[in-house]
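[retry 2/3] Phosphatidylcholine 1-acylhydrolase: previous attempt timed out, resubmitting with same input.
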Amino acid sequence: MIKRILLISFALSSYSIYAQEADDLLFSQDRQNQGLDQRWELTPETRGRTFTISPYKPVYILPFRYVNKPNELPASLSEPNVSTEHKDYDNLEIKFQISFKTKVVQGLFFGKGDLWVAFTQTANWQAYNGDLSRPFRELNYEPELLFNYPLNLSWNRLKFKMIGFGFNHQSNGQSLPESRSWNRFTMHLGMEYDRWTFFVRPWLRLREKANADDNPQITEYVGKGEFNAVYANWGHVFTLNFRTNFRFNEHHKGYTEFTWSYPIKNHLKAFLAISNGYGDSMIDYNWNQTNIGIGISLMEWL
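[retry 2/3] Phosphatidylcholine 1-acylhydrolase: success.
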């Protein structure tokens, strides 16, 4: 199955390379030069209006996603959140993500800070599993409130572009025993170095009552922060996302995801995603698995 997926990915990428027109390449070059200034409206030239929908996290669909070890009997470290009904999930499923943000207040603190509202939804769909009536295995909802402030600092060729903080809620909307949710206070720093863009985002989980915690010790599995590196060149966009619990010993846990995209036509891009670790979705917060998916994307981190 993995070999088939890799062969399909190679064929798709080969087609996109040879089918790419000159105007698409110029479009990709213009887009990669926009960077954080354009995405977050950091300069007077890029500043837009409030209540305008704009991209946030990647938007994609993976029609063919191989999961090496589906979580067929989810078990939280909280006793009421332990499933007792085994589900015979397929290894092959569909995954998609939509994500957007809108600025609700601008010009805070010396006329530069902005307040944003963002929303991301991710779906894992057992679309090929006719025996289980093709259910959505997991749906995750992630609303956020973000404050962002532009920076004009540099160290050699490394430019510090923005800094901020936010409040984040993430849940799967399920009832017991498969309910999973948590709240976080997040911080973020955005930087650029030539064709590279870097995001650093640590977080602190907001404490919950012990008897109301759906997923105890989630930060020991999912991590206490993440690091994103994005490289864009001639239409190619490579990203590496790394989450860690900052225990760099035998107790280290986290999540690593690599993605690659290449334009097919304008905003439509071939998309490959490979990941390993804990917390691919909320129901899998303490479940380690490897995933390989191919499909298309409409929006990247940049």
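[retry 2/3] Phosphatidylcholine 1-acylhydrolase: The longest strand covers residues 136-155.
[retry 2/3] clearing retry counter.
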